[in-house]
Design goal:
alpha+beta, Glutaredoxin, four-stranded mixed sheet, five-stranded mixed sheet, 471 residues
Length: 471
Amino acid sequence: MWIILLMLLAVSPAARVEEVAAKIDGQAIPLAEIDTPSRAKIVRLHQALTDEAARALDRLIDRQLQASSEAKFPSPKPVTDEAIRAFRASRPEDFEGPFAPLETKRNPAAEWPAIRLYLTQKALESVQAEARRRLRAGHAIKVWLPDGPELEQPLSPIRTVALVDDTPITAEMLEQATALRLYRLRKEIYLERQRCLETSVENRLLSEEARRLGIPIEDLLAKMTRDTTVGTKELNASIESERAAGRPVSDPDRARQYLAFRKAYTRRAALVKKLRDSARIEILLEEPSLPRLPMIELNAPILGALDGPRLIAYTNYRCTPCRAAHREIDRILAAQRNVRVVFRDFIPVYDPVADEAARLSRCADRLGAFGRVRSELLGRNPPAFGEAWYTDDALRTLASRLDIDSDALVQCLSSPELGEAIEQDTAEAHELGFEEAPSFVVQGIPLSGMQSAKSLAGILRNQRYPGRLSD
């Protein structure tokens, strides 16, 4: 029998030591105070942290059980043409209606591969759910899931968060399994609190100034809006300035209101700056540290040095930002001879064009021609969705031109191992926390989206990210 003991280690607010977000001249601003304006969002983010930790812990438990039993999740039965016809006939609005995918509207031949993939994925989910149930049967699994507030900071590495038949899963393993996703949620909480803290500090300074002057805070704020009348001369000068800058003003009354608001805002900002300069302000909020991800190569194609600073690039040859990223990588390789670049396939959505290119590049790597085929793929525009990069004759011509054995290339492309390897790369990228291509792990530092050669090279040289992590 499968036994799971789930314990949420939620600590009541009363039991927690009151945390301090900042101090002004020794006077504390409690964390609870700055959380109040965005309480609903903080609660939502805490729940997201708990949910993410639970998903990662589930994966770790399954891996531990698989490793001990050497069991593998089975593959579903192939989807038949009859099943595809039945699915297509049962949902005509999905393929013919106003919200049907644009690609299938342009190319009806793309419907069947898309339906086959969808049905295969649904069957895989069902098969894996049953396999997971059987895998856990008869095992004693205890889980101590930290609550959201605890997960705001990295847990103690040696802390046990689960036991699988008395074999521990530690917090360090949990942090590694979902480092990037936890970081993003922690960073979102930090940024939300930082915004609220700025407002809280400003309000505290203004309230203290009003107390010093012996007047209500409302009177102090009212003083800032006095004498903000905008005269005709001042208004006309502003309108003329806007017109000269190519921004004609259509409503002078609104312009007058804006100028009056700007006067009051400038006056308030000047006072707040003066108060800040004369106060001793300690900001105690700590920005979460950047995660360090594993540098996984998995026999992927490699260019550059045998050893040295490493860049793992999760890309494909179809998406426009990916192709631009490849060109930036070429600039790095040309400028830094000691850099090692590992190319992993990342195809986040169904895309037969990207899949074909990934197969070509992997086979070229096996045949010792990865660099040449990569240049070939980047040197031509990707075909339209549903069309092939190369027909059979064109493929053999390509092989001859690049000095590759054409029979070996054709045989390689039909290997079932290729699809599994591409899926494994994509699954790895998702598990690391990436959602879009291109994505990178540069000396352990994760980056998402298009990156310039300059920024990537800077990290490779310094082994630290000089700015903000891309989300």
